[in-house]
Amino acid sequence: MMSSYFVRRVKSGIPGFDELIEGGFPEGTTVLLTGGTGTGKTTFAAQFIYKGADEYGEPGVFVTLEERAKDLRREMRAFGWDFERLEKEGKVAIVDGVSSTVGLPSEERFVLEDRFNMDNFLRYIYRVVKAINAKRLVIDSIPSIAFRLEEERKIREVLLKLNTILLEMGVTTILTTEAPDPAHGKISRYGIEEFIARGVVILDLQERNIELKRYLLIRKMRETRHSMKKYPFEIGPTGVVVYPSGEIY
């Protein structure tokens, strides 16, 4: 296998994280970001898209299936991230996958239709990626895709198809999912997500000294040497920061 020295890296935009994965994600890879509710998955993924477009010249697409695009923009302003500016500059596209589903009108430029069809979904995402020449993609989240399917059991087939399309597009992708019980090895809801992804990052909340602390674990990252330790991280005024030294608390 080719040495990781020759692998082109995509910077995550997360301070402290890239030094844990030899400088960044392998270009064109699909990474599963998994964790329980409130662990910071959406913020981590949004930071990946925002910093990529704003600092590294890599346009990105954020597909939001959990909340409306305008709500996402508002929440991310708390970190000083002006998504609207980047959208106007053609560097970021936010795909609203919520409004039509719940029967609300949307003024967004990119909106998924209310009748969910996986083939149409994939074609639409492909078109949006090509429209802005995106190098990065986030789909938030896999359980929301499964929820929209007529038969949730089809999720395995759907994820395999999704992975094939993502590899074809050549974008560096973060897929988010729920981890039912990471402490006991259940790191994804459907048990297949971690097998289609070339990288798996787990975000976790653990009780320490009568308060919850945030930890990150790189479970898998192809073409990359990485530690299997848990590293503390926090969500501060400027977003997610990882502490490779472990010195934070």
Automatic annotation (TrEMBL):
<dbReference type="InterPro" id="IPR010624">
    <property type="entry name" value="KaiC_dom"/>
</dbReference>
<dbReference type="GO" id="GO:0005524">
    <property type="term" value="F:ATP binding"/>
</dbReference>
<keyword id="KW-0547">Nucleotide-binding</keyword>
<feature type="domain" description="KaiC">
    <location>
        <begin position="8"/>
        <end position="249"/>
    </location>
</feature>
<dbReference type="Pfam" id="PF06745">
    <property type="entry name" value="ATPase"/>
</dbReference>
<keyword id="KW-0067">ATP-binding</keyword>
<dbReference type="InterPro" id="IPR014774">
    <property type="entry name" value="KaiC-like_dom"/>
</dbReference>
<dbReference type="InterPro" id="IPR027417">
    <property type="entry name" value="P-loop_NTPase"/>
</dbReference>
<dbReference type="InterPro" id="IPR003593">
    <property type="entry name" value="AAA+_ATPase"/>
</dbReference>
<protein>
    <submittedName>
        <fullName>KaiC domain protein</fullName>
    </submittedName>
</protein>
